[in-house]
Write a structure and sequence with these properties.
Layout: E1 2-4, E2 23-29, H1 36-43, E3 50-55, H2 61-71, E4 76-81, H3 87-100, E5 105-108, H4 120-126, E6 132-136, H5 150-167, E7 179-182, H6 183-186, H7 198-209, E8 213-217, H8 236-256, H9 262-268
Parallel strand pairs: 1-8, 2-3, 2-5, 3-4, 6-8
Antiparallel strand pairs: 5-7, 6-7
Helix pairs in contact: 5-8, 7-8
């Protein structure tokens, strides 16, 4: 259901027949005052429309975004969450905006300097042949790649392997936030998890909808080694247990709704 390619394999409503479909670039942001201007400048070199979801920032990011939006209203829009609701909630706002404004799809990337905006066009190009294009930090070794925190890599590998076994994917990186989604794919999602477990719901619902997935390589860049996942989830074992619970619950939900294909249903049940 999912596939991978090497590095060298080869946006909105009211468009005329001669105009290409427009894609949105969306950035979930929480307290990124030191990065946001530079990231926006770089993204604007590769996209003519950016949505920033400011998820309750309190470090001056909100004021910077207000200034950028006011100065570039035709290029930058901002959704502001009054409080910090979480990564999943920010992406849900971006997905709703994409559909409401008639874009052909959306590219999501983080605003902390860990994703390289010059790769945006390749994600959009790859989406011509896949419903979801997902970045992978483990498909290819790049010169200068960082060493990931061991506990994060361990959890990523464990959850990625479980997703592959239970859902029939062949992913190498279940948690990379650099992705491209066709609008048709977004219509299949009913995301409820507000936090960092949101990708688990997403993969389950993608499998249930029979969406095609393509992974493409991206460099392994870790600038925020002290990221907080929220309270007790900063403890690796607690976070892994929670992720497993979310995955189990998401699978049970689509099964109860009769949306889990038979070829996957047998794999998805633990003995």
């Amino acid at each position: 259901m999912s596939r991978s390619v090497s590095e060298h394999s080869s946006a909105g409503p009211h468009l005329s027949a001669s105009q290409p479909p427009r894609w949105l670039v969306a950035l979930p942001v929480y307290n990124e005052v030191n990065y946001v201007d530079g990231v926006l400048d770089e993204v604007l070199r590769h996209s003519d429309r950016i949505l920033v979801v400011d998820d309750g920032s309190s470090d001056g990011t909100t004021e910077k975004l207000r200034s950028r939006r006011d100065g570039q209203p035709d290029q930058i829009d901002v959704i502001h969450h009054e409080r910090n609701r979480g990564y999943g909630a920010a992406l849900r706002s971006a997905f709703e905006y994409t559909l409401h404004h008639g874009y052909a799809g959306v590219v999501t990337l983080d605003c902390d300097g860990q994703h390289q905006p010059h790769r945006i066009p390749r994600f959009i190009e790859a989406a011509k042949t896949a419903d979801i294009v997902s970045g992978s930090r483990y498909l290819k070794k790049y010169e200068g790649d960082d060493e990931p925190p061991q506990e994060r890599m361990f959890i990523n590998r464990r959850i990625t392997a479980d997703i592959n076994e239970r859902l029939g994917f062949s992913l190498t990186d279940a948690f990379c936030g650099f992705k491209a989604y066709r609008a048709e794919a977004l219509q299949a999602f009913k995301i409820t998890d507000d936090g960092y477990a949101m990708p688990l719901e997403l993969w389950v619902q993608a499998a249930a909808a029979g969406l095609s997935v393509l992974e493409i390589p991206v460099p392994l860049i870790y600038l925020d080694l002290d990221r907080s996942f929220g309270g007790s989830l900063d403890h690796a074992e607690t976070r892994l247990k929670y992720y497993n619970q979310v995955l189990d619950s998401a699978i049970e939900t689509v099964r109860s709704e009769g949306r889990l294909p038979e070829r996957i249903a047998a794999k998805s049940s633990h003995a």
